[in-house]
Structures
1.
Amino acid sequence: MSANLYGDTPSSPTKDHIISVIVRDEPRVLTRITSMFARRGFNIKSLSVGTTENPGVSRMTIVVGGDDNILQQAIRQLEKLIDVIKVIDHREEKFVDRELVLVKVTITPETRVEVRHIAEDFRARIVDVGRYALMFEVTGDEGKITAFIEQMRPFGIIETMRTGRVALSRGSNADIPTQVYTDGGSKSLEPVLGDVEI
């Protein structure tokens, strides 16, 4: 049985996929990309956008929910967009991903010390101190962020804000800037711009 557009058939396990999209930093690029996902029924779990080392170029990290077929469809559709320079499928490479969360937790005189000790275990940083609440900043992979939130939940979470995941492939080609990659090379480490005009 083939998967439908949403990848929710029993034979098609749904999971999260991380892709990076290198785009021209132009007005309405984000709107065009999110509109494409919406039209196709792809589920964006998180989306983070920021500038890159190249002026006029931005990097998006998109977490897409669905099976492998959904991911391939999403990549093909992204590659058709005029403002997209390159799409990186992080399944093909080892990568580092991180997420940041701000968590505001209720405290009392009785729980203040325990909350701070748990935060220290997660290397969380206190960014705001109030009489009845502490705000923490935590950076790490998705598992660490989720575990920290669950540890704080019994004390009373007032608010949270997660940035969404960002990712870069491991390794570097910076020491060989003129390297020309062959079929055996790392696709994600190829020069991002090449001959593309910005």
2.
Amino acid sequence: MNTLDINQIKEYLPHRYPLLLVDRVLDYELDKSITAIKNVTINEEFFNGHFPHKPVMPGVLMIEALAQTAALLSFMSKGVKPDSNSIVYFVGIDNARFKRPVGPGDQLRMEVQLMRAARGIYKYKARGVVDGETAVEAELMCTMRSAVDASQPAGE
């Protein structure tokens, strides 16, 4: 099994607290798939407002956790670690569905498979599972760019 701990994950993802949403990689196969986890705790900043009386992880953050997992696979498959001039941009979401709430004490298991890679765009099938039940699923698209190129307006 190929695993990554939090320190290794931080070598590939530029995100930091409170937006680093991948705690551990359980397994991966380069250019194919990755499985990771997010341990959801009551200490998450977003639970202060979403919702204090019934804490629920926002759907957009579940999608972000899946996108970060996909970005990890992208960087590792290309054999590069990001520097101050590289970034993976999230460029699309298709068929997103939320099937069950995720709350404190849950472990979100993120399963991401590469569907295709063409012209620098990667498309992934992604699913988040809690206790064997699908919580979220979507098709995600991302691209790797240099931060300098990404700051230029389109067409220039």
3.
Amino acid sequence: MAGEGEEDLPRDAKIVKSLLKSMGVEDYEPRVVHQFLEIWYRYVVEVLTDAQVYSEHATKPTIDCDDVKLAIQSKVSFSFSQPPPREVLLELAASRNKIPLPKSIAGPGIPLPPEQDTLLSPNYQLVIPKKSASTEPEETEDDEEMTDPAQSSSQEQQTSELPSQTPQRVSFPLSRRTK
């Protein structure tokens, strides 16, 4: 896979293949080279675009080496974060290790923490809709004949007096805990 058609490849693809070989990667898909080239070209375009913005800001007619260095430096500082120093990590570990672990449930099998300390404790939410006063379906017909105007206004008053249909949420654990 890695040595097929070396002569027909562009110079950049040959460089990517030699980098892979120098890192000890011998067997890879041919499209890996194309993916690395795409990432490489995208990075170069972004750096040169940033360098162009920096040179325009400095009112320079062309991009120079300082603009490219500044663009690379800004990309590295915003793209990659440095880990904290070893001393800081040791202090954080010491403060965290002062807190004892929760007691485990004794029993056969793998020791587990108490159920209230786990994220897997069962908790269910049920939606219980409030029951309405009337369960008759509303009839809406757009006929030319209107029966009694007083009757239609009394129906409107009945519907406005009904309680709102907002569901009530109830939350409880599935199993009972005995303490």
